[in-house]
Design a protein that fits this description.
It is built from 9 helices and no strands. With about 210 residues, the chain is mostly helical. It has a single domain, classed as Tetracycline Repressor, domain 2, CATH 1.10.357.10. Helix 1 crosses helix 4, helix 6 packs across helix 7 and helix 7 crosses helix 8. It is elongated and about 60 Å long. About 25% of the residues are buried.
């Protein structure tokens, strides 16, 4: 195990991030303060302020912890599949956005609350845009691996496919979180969409937006 100031810093960030997520999921975003997180984590408010700096920093810390936990879930899911294909990787990544149980609902409620706040917080919005752009690039890379050898595909087609799949997963997640559909139905719908998209190779790679509209 690594030792020293660096590892201690990361440990504290994880501890505070976990506490902040519990506060936010239980009591809502207005309750997310240095004091409430300090009580939840069993530390002083000054310790929380030292790591988060500001109220906005506390929200960012919370969201980054959500991303870390989601990435861990994806790695575990992919690791459980012998010789995973690109489709397996895409599915594991996107299914992590669908609530499978109470713990998942807590994580995703946190994400939804932070994203709603980002509508009026340019700095946090930039953080979210960066994270989504990174995710779309990763998904596009996996789509390219799945389609490789079938025909040359330009990056725009890959990005569009990745963006569509991400939007589908996020929409299904919202429907599940609000109780419009249950989690199992959302998972099945997402599974079908992924398999259909990645096995149905696009007829053309260079269609401009709106070119098929009259």
């Amino acid at each position: 195990m690594p030792r020293g100031a660096g590892s201690q810093h990361e440990t504290q960030l994880r501890r505070l991030g976990d506490a902040a997520m519990r506060v936010l999921a239980r009591d809502g975003l207005p309750a997310l303060t240095f004091r409430s997180v300090a009580v939840e984590a069993g530390v002083s408010p000054g310790r929380v302020q030292h790591y988060a700096r500001t109220g906005k920093g506390l929200i960012t810390l919370t969201f980054r912890r959500f991303r870390e936990l989601t990435q861990e879930r994806v790695r575990e899911s992919v690791g459980s599949v012998p010789s995973p294909t690109p489709i397996d990787v895409v599915e594991a990544t996107l299914q992590a956005l669908i609530p499978h149980g109470d713990q998942d609902r807590t994580l995703l409620h946190v994400a939804a609350a932070v994203e709603l706040h980002a509508l009026t917080d340019p700095g946090l919005a930039e953080e979210l845009r960066g994270g989504r752009a990174e995710l779309i690039r990763f998904l596009a890379e996996q789509v390219g691996r799945e389609w490789s050898g079938k025909r040359s595909v330009d990056p725009l087609a890959l990005s569009r496919a990745a963006t569509t799949l991400l939007a589908t997963a996020e929409g299904l997640s919202t429907l599940a979180l609000t109780g419009t559909i249950d989690g199992a139905e959302a998972q099945l719908n997402l599974h079908t969409c992924i398999r259909t998209t990645l096995t149905d190779f696009p007829a053309t790679s260079h269609t401009e937006p709106g070119s098929g509209l009259r």
